[in-house]
Design goal:
The complex is a heterodimer of chains A (418) and B (151). Chain A is an alpha/beta fold and 418 residues long. Chain A has 14 helices and 17 strands. In chain A, strand 8, helix 8 and strand 9 form a beta-alpha-beta unit. In chain A, helix 2 packs antiparallel against helix 10, helix 11 runs parallel beside helix 14 and helix 12 crosses helix 14. Chain B starts with a helix and ends with a helix. The chains are: A alpha/beta (418), B alpha+beta (151).
Chain lengths: 418, 151
């Protein structure tokens, strides 16, 4: 095998991830290829979580004691780190949520309750795509049902890309919001942001980008994207679960109404009415996920120290190799782009008529962790006429040897059900 | 190998050569899905009094769910309803045993081929696959009976 270009020093990186040494099923070393579902966590993040609870734990933004001040500084410090990570013009544009789903739901609810010119109602339209994660479909179905707005979407081409041939009919003067994923969680497709944003801006629609599968894997610059909102989650990018991010343009966050009411999001409260704190606090009712935000801050530090451009290059090399090797497996069909061009490191496939559930089970027996099923993107399975897929997804610690293990594992699957 | 305890020969046999597959005339029809993995089954039951005349089904899914439907068809068709319900209860008990129940002779006599699914009960993610067709059958039977009552 010719050496791959652009690989990271995975030997060093893997030392940061204790779980990657785990043995499963009687002494088989785990081959973790389920990174699109959640990433593993480096020791640096685990240490930050521990240190927070052992040394600094208190509630934030209240209390004058030393622990409260330290906890607040750590929590708000994490906001600064995230803001820098995504090149946000202002730290006040970074809202902490519990996950990407909550971020997406938050925007859908803001728009449902908003006044003109943002208000989504029966005269208006919402645009999504057929390759969205359920978390970027269902909130819009709910909004559509509640407001009477029409829900429209872009279909898919046979090779797993967005079909934008009818973009002028899909995004129209009636469109209030266009919400789409930057990278497909099931097919790995990287979508053409510019074309969609340009058309949305032409008709005055807002744009929400689901960057859950992008933020962990490539440099993310919210200003370059040109969107109005960007959502992602912490646990797929080396952070803990329970922390997500919604970035939004400041003027929108000022104009749009809050969704959840409670402590921390207010300015003054009387029994008759209340006024609200400025963003981001306006959208962070109640005690936030403090330790989780601190953990995400540590994850951002970790990724930044390695370099998002280097991580992107590493994954591109691994993806290129994985696509090539997988296509050598008899009866294997990739669902999605069959080259590494404009694609991320999540690769879905079907193997003959062996059901993905069976594929995953036999792989698991060999210590190989993949995801099987709909991947919360059932419309994609329907579109390609398949019951489900097997998905292997890679990250900064993935190695060519793990790709080889997968391919050997699939050979074993074929023999088992052959 | 542990895997062989799940994929028993008899299960793979049923998967490759399913019994009673295809939709035929019935008194009630249900469609059940297993949302975590995409297994689906459409199932019809045909009753004659308290006797199960036919259980027909069509679906897609993993080997466990498909084999289980085949075994279920074999076990309940031609049986009296209360008898078949008992078989279902024993199967449910086995599947919920988390691999801790060693089927004895009595259980083997009741479950016949279905006893091969004992190994599946060790895999929490797969128990639903094995139960999908049985739950669909139970649901369809309940519907057929309630339709008969209201008729």
């Amino acid at each position: 095998m010719t050496p791959l270009h652009g690989l990271l020093d995975t030997e060093a990186i893997r030392k940061d991830f204790p779980i990657l040494d785990r043995m499963v099923h009687d002494g088989k070393k785990i081959v973790y290829l389920d990174n699109a579902a959640t990433s593993q966590k480096p020791r640096q993040v685990l240490d930050a979580l521990n240190a927070y609870y052992e040394q600094h734990n208190a509630n934030v933004h209240r209390g004058v004691h030393v622990l409260a001040e330290e906890a607040t500084a750590l929590y708000e410090g994490a906001r600064d780190k995230v803001a820098a990570f995504i090149n946000a013009p202002s730290r006040d544009e970074v809202i902490f949520t519990k996950n990407a789903s909550e971020s997406l739901n938050l925007v859908a609810n803001m728009l449902g309750w908003a006044d003109e010119p943002y208000r989504v109602d029966r005269e208006t339209e919402i645009v999504i795509t057929e390759m969205e994660h359920h978390s970027n479909i269902v909130p819009w179905q709910l909004l559509s049902q509640r407001t009477g707005a029409k829900l429209k979407w872009f279909g898919l081409t046979d090779d797993g890309r967005l079909d934008l041939s009818d973009i002028d009919q899909v995004i129209t003067e009636k469109t209030k919001i266009v919400s789409f994923t930057l990278v497909s969680n099931i097919m790995g497709t990287i979508n053409p942001v510019d074309a969609i944003v340009r058309r949305a801006q032409d008709v005055g629609a807002l744009v929400l980008i689901d960057a859950s599968q992008a933020a962990p894997h490539m440099p993310l610059d919210v200003q370059a994207l040109g969107a109005d909102f960007v959502a992602f989650t912490g646990h797929k990018m080396c952070g803990p679960t329970g922390i997500g991010v919604l970035w939004g343009r400041q003027e929108l966050l000022e104009d749009l109404p809050p969704f959840l009411g409670g402590g921390e999001m207010i300015e003054t409260v009387s029994m008759h009415s209340s006024t609200y704190a400025p963003a981001p606090h306006k959208f962070e009712a109640g005690t936030p996920p403090i330790a989780q935000a601190v953990g995400l801050g540590a994850a951002v530090d970790y990724l930044t120290a390695i370099g998002m451009d280097k991580i992107e290059a590493h994954e591109h090399a691994i993806t290129e190799y994985a696509v090539k090797r997988l296509l050598e497996v008899p009866d294997l069909r990739i669902i999605g782009p069959t080259t590494a061009e404009d694609r991320g490191a999540a690769i879905s496939f079907v193997l003959g008529d062996i059901h993905p559930h069976d594929v995953g089970q036999v792989l698991d027996e060999q210590g190989i962790a993949v995801r099987v099923g709909h991947h919360c993107a059932r419309p994609v399975c329907l579109r390609y006429g398949i019951p489900a897929t097997t998905r292997a997804s890679f990250y900064l610690y993935s190695t060519p040897a793990e790709v080889d293990a997968l391919v050997e594992g699939l050979e074993h699957v074929r023999n088992f059900f052959g | 190998m542990k895997l062989d305890s799940m994929y028993q020969e008899v299960i793979l046999d049923h998967y490759k050569h399913p019994h009673g597959r295809g939709l035929r005339d019935g008194d009630a029809e249900v469609h059940h899905v297993n949302p975590t993995c995409g297994d689906e089954i459409t199932l019809r039951v045909k009753l004659d009094g308290s006797k199960i005349v036919d259980v027909s089904y069509e679906g897609q899914g993993c080997s466990i769910s498909q084999a289980s439907a085949s075994v279920m068809n074999e076990l309940v068709v031609g049986r009296e309803l209360d008898e078949a319900m008992k078989v279902q209860e024993v199967f449910l008990e086995l599947m919920q045993s988390k691999g801790k129940l060693e089927p004895d002779d009595a259980m083997e006599e009741v479950l016949e081929d279905a006893v091969a699914f004992a190994g599946v009960s060790k895999y929490p993610a797969r128990v639903k696959c094995a139960l999908l067709s049985w739950m669909a059958w139970k649901d369809a039977t309940a519907q057929a009976l309630s339709e008969r009552e209201s008729a």
